[in-house]
Design goal:
The chain is an alpha+beta fold. It has helices at 21-31, 33-53, 144-148, 150-214, 219-254, 281-288, 290-312, 338-341, 345-349, 354-363, 382-449, 455-490, 493-496, and strands at 2-4, 16-19, 59-72, 82-98, 102-116, 123-138, 261-264, 316-332, 367-376, 499-501.
C-alpha cells in the first residue's frame, strides 16, 4: 500500500543486527498491524465506491418461456369442448438507470409464437413481434445528478477518509519509532559513559594502591577511590538494564520478536531544523495536517447528505413515455371455421410465419405510443423529515468539530515549534556546561598529579563531567524528538520520510 525509497534489508536472516533510524522506520511501517488494518479498510472503502456506482449499471435481460395447455372451453368453435394452446416467448432488453434520475428500457424486444386449435383464430401458428422503447423520468424526488450521485460522492469521501486515517497512523507510528529509537541511542550512550566512568575510577584505584603501598598517600584516599569504583559498577548494571528496556520497547514498536538481537547506532546526530517562519507555522499546519482534510471531507459528506434528504422530502412526480413497433406473421389455422366466419384476409397477407413478423416490424407501419405522469404526495412524511433533521444536526456537529480541530492544531503547532527552539538552546547551554566541566576535570587532574588535589575532589570532578555529558546527550535526544513532533504537528512528517501512499 505504501512505498519507501530506502530498500528493506532481510534482517531476520541475521542473529544480530545494528539498525539505523531509517531502517527502523521502514521495518516498523511494514510490520505494524494497525497499518495493515488501515490498508484493508482503505481497500474496502474503494470497493464500496464501485458498489455504489453499480446503480448505473446497464443490464441485458433475456427470457425464454414455453407454455402448453389443454383447457376446457365452452366456445362453439372449440373441438370436443377443449382448447389446445401452445406458446413460446423470447424476449431481450437493455435496462438501466441514469444519474439524471432517468430509468429506461431500450430495445425491449418480444417475439411470441402461438399455436391453437380454436376455430376463431385465423392463424396458427402465429408470430407476434414487438420492439419498444420506454423512459421514465423523475421530476421532483430523485431528480438530477446531485440527488442520484450522493451515495457515490459519500463513498468517495469515505475512501479519502480511510486514506487519511492511514496517513495519520503512519505519521503517529513514525513519531513513536523515532522516540523509541532515540531513547535507545541515549541509553546506549549512557551505558558507554558508565563504562568510561568506571575505567577512570579504576585508574585512580590503581594509582592510589601503589602510592598507599609506598606510603606517600593515606589509606582513606584508596578507600574513597574503591568505593567510587564500586558505585560506578552499580551504575553500569543500571545503565545496562535501561538500555535493554529501551531496546525491548523499540522491538515492540517495530513488530519484532523480543528475542532478536538488536543494536542501534551510538552516535546522536543532530537533525537539521528547516528554515520556517514562525508566523507561517499555523498556516503550514492547517494546509498539511490530515485532521483538517479529514474533517473537511466529513463536513462535505454531511452537506451532500443534507442536500439529498432535502430532495427526499419532495413528492414523487414521474413522467413516463413509451413508443413501440409491432409485427405479425403466421400460417393459416387448419381449424379455422371459414364456413361460419368467412375467408380471413389476414391469413393470406401473413403466411410466411417468422419472416413476415420481423418484416412487418421493420416496416414500422404498426406502432403505438403513450405518455403519462404520476404524482404521489405523502400526507405524513415523518421518515424523510426526520432524516433531514438528522442531516442538519450532523452538519452543525461537523462544523463545531472542524473548529475544535483547527484550534487544537494552532496550539500544537505553536507549542511544538517553541519546544524545538527551547531544545536547540538547551543544546548550546549543555555544550558549554560540558566544556566547562571538562576544563574543571583537566585542572583537577593536574592538581592531583602534583599532590595539591585530593582523591575525593578528582572523583567528584569526574562524576560532574559524566553528568554533563549525559545532560548534553539528553539535550540532543530531546531536540531530535522535538523536530519529529514538529514535523508531525505540521503534517509534513510523511513527506519528509519520502513515504508514498498508493490510491
Amino acid at each position: 500500500m505504501f512505498l519507501k525509497t530506502l530498500s528493506l534489508f532481510a534482517f531476520l536472516t541475521f542473529t544480530s543486527w545494528s539498525i539505523s533510524l531509517d531502517q527502523a522506520i521502514q521495518v516498523g511501517l511494514q510490520n505494524n498491524k494497525k497499518i495493515l488494518i488501515q490498508e484493508a479498510e482503505l481497500d474496502s472503502s474503494l470497493s464500496l465506491i464501485k458498489e455504489m456506482e453499480g446503480i448505473f449499471d446497464v443490464y441485458l435481460n433475456t427470457e425464454i418461456s414455453f407454455e402448453d395447455s389443454v383447457l376446457p372451453s365452452t366456445s362453439a368453435f372449440a373441438k370436443n369442448n377443449t382448447l389446445n394452446r401452445k406458446s413460446t416467448l423470447y424476449s431481450a432488453s437493455l435496462d438501466g438507470y441514469l444519474p439524471t434520475g432517468t430509468s429506461y428500457s431500450f430495445f425491449d424486444f418480444n417475439l411470441e409464437k402461438r399455436e391453437t386449435d380454436l376455430g376463431t383464430d385465423a392463424m396458427s401458428p402465429s408470430w407476434i413481434s414487438n420492439l419498444s422503447f420506454k423512459v421514465k423520468q423523475n421530476l421532483l424526488k430523485d431528480f438530477g445528478v446531485s440527488a442520484n450521485n450522493t451515495k457515490i460522492l459519500v463513498a468517495e469521501g469515505n475512501a479519502k477518509i480511510s486514506k487519511i486515517e492511514l496517513e495519520k497512523t503512519i505519521s503517529s507510528l513514525i513519531v513513536e519509532i523515532e522516540t523509541r529509537y532515540w531513547d535507545s541511542v541515549y541509553a546506549k550512550n549512557n551505558l558507554e559513559l558508565a563504562y568510561s566512568s568506571l575505567n577512570l575510577a579504576q585508574e585512580i584505584v590503581n594509582q592510589n594502591t601503589v602510592e598507599v603501598e609506598v606510603g606517600t598517600l593515606p589509606r582513606i584516599s584508596l578507600l574513597q577511590a574503591q568505593a567510587e569504583a564500586a558505585y560506578r559498577q552499580v551504575e553500569i548494571t543500571l545503565a545496562e538494564n535501561r538500555y535493554n528496556d529501551s531496546l525491548d520497547l523499540l522491538k515492540n514498536v517495530l513488530g519484532l520478536s523480543l528475542n532478536v538481537d538488536l543494536n542501534v547506532d551510538n552516535l546522536i546526530s543532530i537533525k537539521e531544523l528547516e528554515k520556517i517562519d514562525p508566523d507561517e507555522i499555523e498556516y503550514i499546519a492547517i494546509n498539511n495536517r490530515p485532521e483538517v482534510k479529514q474533517e473537511s471531507i466529513m463536513l462535505n459528506n454531511s452537506q451532500e447528505l443534507l442536500d439529498f434528504y432535502s430532495n427526499q422530502i419532495l413528492p414523487d412526480l414521474d413522467i413516463e413515455a413509451l413508443f413501440s413497433y409491432s409485427g405479425l406473421g403466421g400460417s393459416k389455422n387448419s381449424d379455422y371455421s371459414s364456413a361460419i366466419l368467412g375467408t380471413p384476409r389476414i391469413a393470406s397477407d401473413y403466411n410466411d410465419g417468422f419472416s413476415d413478423s420481423i418484416g412487418t416490424l421493420r416496416s414500422m407501419d404498426n406502432f403505438s405510443w403513450a405518455i403519462g405522469a404520476k404524482l404521489s404526495i405523502p400526507l405524513n412524511n415523518n421518515v424523510a423529515e426526520s432524516k433531514l433533521e438528522v442531516a442538519n444536526a450532523q452538519k452543525r456537529k461537523r462544523l463545531i468539530i472542524l473548529n475544535q480541530v483547527l484550534d487544537s492544531i494552532h496550539l500544537e503547532a505553536r507549542k511544538s515549534y517553541r519546544d524545538v527552539i527551547s531544545n536547540l538552546d538547551n543544546i548550546e547551554a549543555s555544550r558549554k556546561n560540558l566544556e566547562l566541566h571538562q576544563e574543571i576535570l583537566d585542572n583537577e587532574e593536574e592538581r592531583f598529579e602534583v599532590g595539591v588535589s585530593k582523591t575525593k575532589d578528582l572523583l567528584e570532578a569526574q562524576r560532574d563531567l559524566i553528568k554533563a555529558q549525559i545532560f548534553y546527550n539528553k539535550s540532543l535526544t530531546d531536540y531530535n524528538v522535538s523536530i519529529t513532533n514538529l514535523d508531525h504537528n505540521l503534517g509534513i512528517l510523511i513527506n519528509k520520510n519520502k513515504i508514498i501512499i498508493d490510491n
